[in-house]
Amino acid sequence: MTDEVVTAAMLAIGDELLSGRTKDKNIGHLADILTAIGIDLEEVRIVPDEEDRIVEALNALRERYEYVFTSGGIGPTHDDITADAVAKAFDVPCEHDAAAMKLMGDNYAARGMEFTESRQRMARMPRGSAHIANPVSTAPGFHIGNVYVMAGVPSVFQAMLDNVIPTLRVGKKLLSRSVNCPFGEGAIAVPLRNIQAIHPDTIIGSYPKYENGKFSTELVIRAREEEKLLAAESAVKEMVADIATQSAQ
Amino acid sequence: MTDEVVTAAMLAIGDELLSGRTKDKNIGHLADILTAIGIDLEEVRIVPDEEDRIVEALNALRERYEYVFTSGGIGPTHDDITADAVAKAFDVPCEHDAAAMKLMGDNYAARGMEFTESRQRMARMPRGSAHIANPVSTAPGFHIGNVYVMAGVPSVFQAMLDNVIPTLRVGKKLLSRSVNCPFGEGAIAVPLRNIQAIHPDTIIGSYPKYENGKFSTELVIRAREEEKLLAAESAVKEMVADIATQSAQ
């Protein structure tokens, strides 16, 4: 059973996410992709651009989950400290990677631009890292151990993630079905709890929505076995129909 | 100096945030509001609807930060376990709050609806909690110690937060100025690092954007003293103008 579940965490790095200046788009994207391929995202943390905080969070997460994905802090400016922090977490030196220097040097040369010391900073990574290709802007992300370090700019994060995904071990997909329920949670809580009890190999979530002064609910059934998924879905649909009949009487 | 800074963390609770089904809107909203009133949001965690995980994260955060705000898991259904988890973290019983029972009972009576056992579940809170009023749908959030427990539905979260904000101790606001820079980070990293070194009481962040195949950068200067903010802002603007002149030559 254990092999069926592959777990992951995300560490989003950046003062701008905590100040509200930037609204994160990478967490939701990663969540969507991992769910689709059969990896369970089990925890997310957002921390500021501070080395100790990044090291602490990264060490907590990489020990606990099979994969950790980070976003942000790998550019050339003084506030980009993710590579150093990851190296510190792994207790290895952070150094200019020869292959990244070559790749980026060639790219800047081809564009007639100087490969300055700050640009070279983007070629720094923890010793022992492998590249994550960056088709958008060349400077690679990297992975070391079970940690995948990617850019914060969403288009670059997504492009890097596309290159990482095919290399990951995946578990059995958590399948899901969604049932719209026109009633608030108070009206369905008891029968829904019973359905959950009768279908223990499913996870039934109830998500209230509040629109135009009225609550409705989206009921989401999740399971790794299709048969169990469909059985619970039927029970949920029947419950919604029963309540509709009762309330029409 | 210590008194000038008031810190906070957020704990967003819910499987749906980790599966990608729901894209969180509360983190960004809380970040905006706290920044505006002078509280520094220093960490965010997202955890699933699992009691142990909520307890562990909550205890880590409430010890470290002056305030902790939670979202999600306070409805009437079986997957709403936040009140129990918070009670467990504080090692107090989770019980039906008499004032909440009265408030909600009256409200359901006025609407001609039955105050069922599941609806009564929403009146449960850790012993010793105080209410957070819910002008949208009556069932109150609560706070205990330095932890503020609010709904996950964004309109309800926001309404509850509006009631919490005036009661919080605030620090000196972190003021900010933003300078648009038409160059990528590689072009500005060295002079920007120098400006940061010369203006140590400011925090200068560099946020790359990638649009239409070209990088530009937003430079954000933050400081608690307006004078220091404006001095660093001038230096950043001058830097951008200098690079523009050089690249035009």
Automatic annotation (TrEMBL), chains A, B:
SUPFAM superfamilies: Molybdenum cofactor biosynthesis proteins (SSF53218). CDD domains: cinA. Pfam families: FLAD1_M, MoCF_biosynth. It comes from the Bacteria. Gene3D superfamilies: MoaB/Mog-like domain. Residues 9-172 form the MoaB/Mog domain. PANTHER family: NICOTINAMIDE-NUCLEOTIDE AMIDOHYDROLASE PNCC (PTHR13939), NMN AMIDOHYDROLASE-LIKE PROTEIN YFAY (PTHR13939:SF0). This is Molybdenum cofactor synthesis domain-containing protein. It comes from Phyllobacterium bourgognense.
